[in-house]
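INPUT
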Amino acid sequence: MSIYLLTNLAYIVAAVLFIFGLKMLTSPATARKGNLISAIGMLLAVVVTLLSRDIIDYKWIAAGIIAGSIIGAFSARLVAMTQMPQMVALLNGFGGITSLLVGWATYHVMAAFDLFTATTIFLAVLIGGVTFSGSLVAWGKLATYISGRPVLFRGQTFLNGTLFIGTLVAVALLLMNPSAGYPLFIGIIILSLLLGIMIVIPIGGADMPVVISLLNSYSGIAGCAAGLAIQNNILIVAGALVGASGIMSCARQ
Amino acid sequence: MDPIVCRSACLICMGMVLILAIFVGFEVISKVPARLHTPLMSGSNAISGITLVGAILAAGHAGNILTVILGTSAVVFATINVVGGYMVTDRMLKMFEKKPAGGKK
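OUTPUT
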């Protein structure tokens, strides 16, 4: 059996585990077991990905996983129970920046220009950037590193609208003229980060749980876009799952 | 098969997977008790750490220094998201678990 086939079969199993895990998380009796099942799905997906033929060098992956595991495990242990919401916000921001970085790396090695891949890369970078900076602001507000009061000023709507349109124009320009290249791409990254900050600062600290819930959904959508860019099924499925369920739980809150 | 036909078949397949996953995501969340909102958010945040898979593939592309830097930092962030996310969710749920058990006894 080819590695490709094996990997994708394992991805199907992982997707099923994620769906069951998420479902079980919605009931108090099964929630803890559900979390474990989804963690097993994650482990399976990561392990079979490591078998990929596309991986030439393992040392940086190993270093990254070890460093990330140590930081993640220690911070999860040490964080106080009362500080859980800001911890989730921070972790969610890390999920966002991952999509941004994966999108960037894919853009960097993209050999031939392909409209579909380019569009999904820009979506991953854009939504990932908004998720990252937005989550950091939400984290800062909850941890009271920055004032929890809404930041409002004159011309805010105009500025936000300009930023949003500017971002869309930059993406459109890059799509129409891919040789415009790096300066514009970096511009999109900076604009997306600014946009994330601007979206969250006008919202008060008390409303942060809903904001984090929405940003959590964004990080799923960003992951899904990254999955479409690198054509990876488990990223598409898990990203769409988190994106859709996040919007749903946001609407019900 | 003609490469163009093959390519569009691949895209259509991904589109199908995407749409079905979105519907499953909508359906999975129903009637969530208020006290499970935060753990559910945290648990699904851990699932969104699946971008670790993409990060691993990016970091494994040896030969290009920028890709390796971007990929490796992506691996670090994603692993913190995954490991921290699952552990934090488990801690929250463990706290909820104790309350009803203590009440019954």
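end of record. The radius of gyration of chain B is 20 Å.
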